[in-house]
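hey so u asked for the seq, here:
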Amino acid sequence: MTRRIALTDGRLLDLDYFVEWRKWLWARPVQSALAFLGDIAGRRVLEIGGRSGRMAALFALLGAEVTMLQMGSTERARVEAEKWGVADRVRLLSSDGGFGPVSGETFEIVFTKSVLWCIPHLDEFLAEIDGHLGPNGKVAFLENVRGGAIVSWLRESVIHRKGVSWAPHYHGITKEHLGLFRQRFDHVQITRHGWFVYLIFGHKRTTT
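ran it, structure tokens below
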């Protein structure tokens, strides 16, 4: 099934392209995230760990002003933004894993896809994200489920098929982690897509 994203100029984009890997697993969660975020035209989006830059390019095509924070080289993302003609709306920043390059900045949306699962001190990282989320801001996290023995076997045997156990170095989001999101953000929605993906949506917590 081909999934399409409509732009205001009438173009229809193939969502699977922007999902980048394992479309059968991630495309529906991405669709759900886009529905939750709504109209993002003119909004400031921070994507953490954008890799190839395809999601950053998609956000820009939908009219957002995007900052992509990435460990290591951003060259692939630069090529992607230029390919789609959105280089003027995609700012690419290389990081050592911290938020130094966006110090003092706030965003209306923070997005991750398969990033938080490997953060060792997730509570501290979420606090950093919250510090960069402006009033009435939204977060959308699409993250790998840690799961138990069955999920680990499925991941190694069905998804990766590399014959190498992920157990020694794989973290993933556990049920215990979910409380951290509820503590940090308001109106948190958490759903599980199949065996492997958590969709976690929320809003900036209002202070009274």
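The chain has one domain: 4-203. The CA atoms of residues 40 and 64 lie 6 Å apart.
lmk if thats what u needed
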